[in-house]
Automatic annotation (TrEMBL):
Keywords recorded for this protein, A-Z: Iron, Metal-binding, Oxidoreductase
Keyword Iron listed: yes
Domain Fe2OG dioxygenase: 183-286
Protein name, UniProt field: Fe2OG dioxygenase domain-containing protein
Molecular function GO terms recorded: metal ion binding; oxidoreductase activity
Any single Pfam family the record assigns to this protein: DIOX_N
Protein's organism: Panicum virgatum
Length: 339
């Protein structure tokens, strides 16, 4: 529990050594500054939405969605209840703290992946919403009292949105529309409630290292404070959140299934010294036993499979280490042309 950042004195003017990353891993975002990712308005006609998602997905691998059907009030409640949780006294949060990565529900600090010892400026409450029942008995329940209800409602709707986007992608790419229904999306929804406290020295550390999400697709509630940075044409660009919208990005399993037609794009979280930032990442996660490889629709004459077919559990084992910032090596490792 002493690892938690909320205990770092806010008046300190420097960061502990463990957080200081080598300068070559901290290339700043471009001077071009803040970029709005393409915004897809889900209330438009189905053909238009399908095309917009596929275009934005191919160009950036990241896009925002507006008019997505999740009520604004639920977004506000979600932000409020997550904020309330992180504001609780340390003693009230201690029972959820664990450094055991195999625990589906836990409070921890730093990267989700193993690191080489370096630390990251993030606290996280990770909750698993098992499907289909959504048994949430191990979630915090005493305080905030409405956390279970709000996060449960939110997760169900965010998952619905993710499944709708996957269906639209299937339609647009010529896969059967229910390709992602079942084990491949069916084990659980993982929810990471990220809290990035103000950081006295944002230029020397990161909230999250550069990484690609390893799930199928991620729905991010980015919060009003900027911090998400995405690679684009060899640079890091800052994402300006659009109010009441989600940021959507493809996970590595979608890259594998589409044989690289859709890419999982590297992203990271920067910190700032002025304000705490909160974000909520909802991951659609395959079952451990699910075997995932390029779909036959994307393989054929002149299009060899570029990725190995692996059980998701084996994929995770291979992809568990963040090597001081770049997960590109791990992606290269899963490509099938290595041996
Ligand atoms: C993540 C993530 C970005 C953010 O949780 O995987 O990339 O802006 N979060 O918090
Ligand atoms: Ni991520």
């Amino acid at each position: 529990m002493e690892q938690m950042l909320h205990q770092t004195p806010s008046h300190s003017s420097s960061i502990p050594d463990g957080f200081v990353l080598p300068a070559d891993h901290l290339r700043p975002a471009t001077a071009a500054g803040v970029v709005s990712l393409p915004v897809v308005d889900m209330s438009h006609g189905r053909d238009e939405v399908r095309r917009a998602i596929l275009d934005a997905g191919k160009e950036h691998g990241f896009f925002q969605v507006a008019n997505h059907g999740v009520p604004e009030q639920l977004l506000r409640d979600m932000e409020a209840v997550c904020h309330e949780f992180f504001q609780l006294p340390a003693a009230d949060k201690a029972e959820f703290y664990s450094e055991d990565r195999s625990k589906p529900n836990r409070l921890f600090s730093g990267s989700s992946y193993e690191t080489l010892g370096e630390r990251y400026w993030r606290d996280c409450l990770r909750l698993a919403y098992p499907l289909p029942a959504g048994d949430t008995k191990d979630w915090p329940h005493k305080q905030p009292q409405r956390l279970r209800k709000v996060v449960g409602n939110y997760t169900a709707l965010a998952r619905g949105l993710a499944m709708e986007i996957l269906r639209l992608l299937c339609e647009g790419m010529g896969l059967r529309p229910d390709y992602f229904v079942g084990d491949i999306s069916g084990s659980r929804v993982a929810v990471d409630i990220n809290h990035y406290p103000p950081c006295p020295d944002p230029s020397r550390t990161l909230g999250l290292p550069p990484h690609c999400d390893r799930d199928l697709i991620t729905i991010l509630l980015p919060g009003a404070v900027p911090g998400l940075e995405v690679t684009y044409k060899g640079d890091w660009i800052k994402v300006q959140p659009v109010p009441n919208s989600f940021v959507v990005n493809f996970g590595l399993q979608l890259e594998v299934v589409t044989n690289g037609m859709l890419r999982s794009v590297e992203h990271r979280a920067a910190t700032n010294s002025a304000a705490a930032r909160m974000s909520v990442a909802t991951f659609i996660v395959p079952a451990d036993d699910c075997v995932i490889g390029p779909a036959e629709e994307f393989v054929g004459e002149g299009r060899p499979p570029c990725y190995r077919t692996l059980r998701f559990a084996d994929f995770k084992r291979m992809h568990n280490v963040v090597n001081l910032g770049s997960s590109l090596n791990q992606i290269t490792n899963i490509k099938s042309n290595q041996e």
